Amino acid sequence: MLTEPQRVMVAVQDDAARTALTENLEADGYRPLAASCLGHARSLLVDRVDALIVDLGSDTARLVDIVRGDGHPTIDAWLPILAGSASEDLFSPLLLLDRGADDVIYEPWLYVEVRARLAALLRRANAGRARQVLRAGALRVDIGARRVWIAETEIEVTNREFELLVVLASEPDRVFTRNELLSSVWDLGDWARTRTLDSHVARLRRKLSVDGASYLINVWGVGYRLTHTAGAPV
Q1: Which of 90-104, 121-135, 189-203 has the weakest average pLDDT?
Q2: Residue 99: other Cβ atoms inside 10 A
Q3: 31-35 and 7-11 strand pairing
Q4: Helix or strand (DSSP H, E) at 21
Q5: Hey, what CATH topology would domain 133-226 get?
Q6: Which of 72, 86, 150, 165 has the greatest CB tally within 10 Å of its CB?
């Protein structure tokens, strides 16, 4: 069975270093995504990324804050981040580790060391992702892979629908109020007056009803919940 190559973003400003890394990663079976600056790197985050290599000496180091602090709908918490630093800079790498980088490698970058450290980080991340599968009856939500199934049928969902399912599936059968869901998924507070939640729930309910049953329940006047047992046909 063929597996898709793991996608590694190489967000390195130096042209020669970026080219060398991407060529070597590709030769080793990875799918490198090259980015020379922060803006380019951010545009690549719309696609799935399995690991991130950033250059501490350029603005791409800001990706650590974007991924770990600001959050991003296509990025999961287990994304490995390997940071490259100039050998004479001893303090900044420690700050970057505090901000969420997983490992630091010092210049000059030896590819054999990059490959070994990257492989170790990916093994750790994949093991963590494997433990992040939420279930509610026949419904499975794989947080790491960002995929959803009803029994053996995979359900295609949008980023917002996925985030909504993660919240609901974290505590199946618990009723989440509208304000809780607006706050968790859209970062909107009690002041929000929007039909966004209702429209997303309606679309998600239709997608989940592949077997003719309802897994997403509307609790009138309160909010929504998932159920371990499929509800009445919709």
Answers
A1: 189-203
A2: 16
A3: parallel
A4: helix 15-27
A5: Arc Repressor Mutant, subunit A (1.10.10)
A6: 165
